[in-house]
Amino acid sequence: MDEAALDTLFRNARTPGRWTETPVEQTVLQQLYELVKLGPTSGNCQPARFVFLQSRDSRERLRPALSAGNVEGALDAPVLVIVAHDPFFFDNMPRLHPDEEARSWFAADHGFAEETAFRNASIQGGYMILAARALGLDVWPMSGFDNHKVDEIILAGCGWRSNFLIGLGYAEGGPDRPRAPRLGFDEACMLL
């Protein structure tokens, strides 16, 4: 990967302060998922589920669940993604991991299944952030919201459980403030 790609994915990528009104086409969202699904998950379990809220009305439904600091960014984003997981992801295991009876690993232990689903869907949400940046989208990940309300408002009929939100679109102008500090290698890493 060249330096320009690293700049796009990490060094120059910033949370947008404002969004343009440029829509994110459905073909871009499909291309985004086609990249995300290729990222590795344990046992190829692929528990993440993504709900793309494209209309202002669909995003507006989440207003009661959003923390005050996220309302404007979430509602103004051309697309708001609910990154969720399917607690019964293991029902797809015979197709996703066909060389073993992988379904039984999770079906017999719902605590283990939930832990696996949450962890791997979180990883897949991270893939979505990087894939979106690679496709030229700006990204605003959010955790300031009430998961139970999101699940009740949007996900009640399907049984999926929300994890975090991602605003997708195209930033208007540069970031509003300098990049926040990051921990140094010696503070965040341990070599044994």
The secondary structure category is alpha+beta
Number of helices: 9
Strands of the widest sheet, in order across it, are 1-2-4-3
What is the CATH topology? NADH Oxidase
From the N-terminal CA to the C-terminal CA, the straight-line distance is: 28 Å
What is the average per-residue confidence, as pLDDT, rounded to a whole number? Answer: 95
Which term fits the overall shape?
globular
CATH class: Alpha Beta
Proportion of beta-strand residues: 5-15%
How do the helices and strands follow one another from N- to C-terminus? HHEHHEHHHEHEH
Give a short overview:
By secondary structure, the chain is an alpha+beta fold. It has helices at 3-11, 26-36, 56-60, 71-76, 93-96, 103-107, 110-134, 147-155, 185-188, and strands at 48-53, 79-85, 138-142, 161-169.
Description:
With 192 residues, the chain is α+β, with helices and mostly antiparallel strands. The protein has a single domain (19-171), classed as NADH Oxidase, CATH 3.40.109. The protein is built from nine helices and four strands; from the N terminus they run ααβααβαααβαβα. The protein has helices at residues 3-11, 26-36, 56-60, 71-76, 93-96, 103-107, 110-134, 147-155, 185-188; strands spanning 48-53, 79-85, 138-142, 161-169. The protein has a four-stranded antiparallel β-sheet with strand order 1-2-4-3. Helix 2 (26-36) packs across helix 7 (110-134). The longest helix has 25 residues, at 110-134. The protein is globular. This is Malonic semialdehyde reductase. Keywords: Oxidoreductase. Its EC number is 1.1.1.298.
